[in-house]
Design brief:
Layout lengths: L2 H11 L2 H14 L5 H27 L11 H24 L4 H20 L7 H12 L4 H20 L5 H24 L2
Helix pairs in contact: 1-7, 2-3, 2-6, 3-4, 4-5, 5-6, 5-8, 6-7, 6-8, 7-8
Length: 194
């Protein structure tokens, strides 16, 4: 298997629409959330991922995008605006439905991460693949073995995005830093409101 084939596989497995919902659902099932909140978390995580996938597929099939990876600046901007809006709606609905603070905070830090990438786009193309992989790792605190394993996944995703030419090393590392900051912010909010 060639280096590019491995990088493509890692990039697909580490895609935010796959990795983050799996991490969120795993953490949610391992927590003491009430059944209705657990259902909300699963629906929000899976629903947001599916909405992003459908949005991307429609854009490609209509000829507006060249690839579902949204590599062109206008494609990436459109995807990130769609994703930030979807995550803000999830945050608002979670808050309005009086879901536990951790549920609302999780959606809010995801939205903030995408907004940060949008704000930084004039300087660097933040790797949201890497950012969400790092965030997924920190969601598992204090399960150190899972968390460390997912950090290895995040570093491997960073490598894949650089090898595929989607990001520079600086953009991949910025994604790692921002994702880690978002995950730390989530854990801090979760700790304060427990």
């Amino acid at each position: 298997m060639s280096k590019l084939s491995v990088a493509r596989t890692v990039s697909i497995v580490g895609h935010p629409a796959l990795l983050l919902p799996v991490a969120v659902v795993g953490v949610a099932f391992g927590s003491a959330l009430p059944a209705n909140s657990l259902a909300t978390v699963v629906a929000a995580a899976v629903g947001t991922a599916l909405a992003v996938m459908v949005f991307s597929i429609v854009r490609v099939r209509s000829g507006r995008w060249s690839h579902a990876d949204a590599s062109q600046p206008t494609e990436r901007f459109q995807l990130n605006v769609f994703l930030a809006t979807a995550l803000m709606v999830v945050t608002a609905l979670s808050w309005a439905a009086s879901q536990p603070k951790a549920v609302t905070a999780g959606a809010a830090v995801c939205a903030a991460l995408v907004v940060a990438a949008l704000l930084l786009r004039s300087w660097l193309k933040v790797s949201l693949h890497v950012a969400f992989a790092a965030l997924a790792a920190l969601l598992w605190w204090p399960h150190h073995l899972v968390m460390l394993s997912l950090f290895v996944v995040a570093l491997t995703v960073a490598w894949s995005r650089v090898v595929l030419g989607r990001h520079s090393r600086a953009e991949a590392m910025l994604g790692l830093v921002l994702g880690s900051a978002a995950g730390s912010a989530f854990q801090l909010v979760n700790y304060v409101y427990q």
